[in-house]
Amino acid sequence: MSRSLEISGSALLFVLEAVTLGTLVVFVGPAVWPPEDAAGVALVVLFALVVVGLAAVMWRSRRVEGAYLRSGYDISYDPVGDPGLAAKERWEKAVRRLPDGDDEDE
């Protein structure tokens, strides 16, 4: 009997994000802390903003994964590059124009 460990994609992504933020703090943190002058304070503030921004982007990417499909944010939307996608859109537009079918000729 063999044992296996299964890790879901979301758990693996969470671990990767945590390791990324932790590594950033561990390696860059000592280089900027403690600040010695005004430039050092500005560097600490910049580093803190980068860490908070990275955490916010990681959090947001988990929350709004499919909310922006078929919009300007969907980089895979290219009807010219994918003729099947363009044909599907034309077909959907034509089907929307069809009458309901309730008033069929008898």
From TrEMBL:
<feature type="transmembrane region" description="Helical">
    <location>
        <begin position="39"/>
        <end position="59"/>
    </location>
</feature>
<keyword id="KW-0812">Transmembrane</keyword>
<dbReference type="Pfam" id="PF26007">
    <property type="entry name" value="DUF8000"/>
</dbReference>
<dbReference type="InterPro" id="IPR058313">
    <property type="entry name" value="DUF8000"/>
</dbReference>
<feature type="transmembrane region" description="Helical">
    <location>
        <begin position="12"/>
        <end position="33"/>
    </location>
</feature>
<keyword id="KW-1133">Transmembrane helix</keyword>
<keyword id="KW-0472">Membrane</keyword>
<protein>
    <submittedName>
        <fullName>Uncharacterized protein</fullName>
    </submittedName>
</protein>
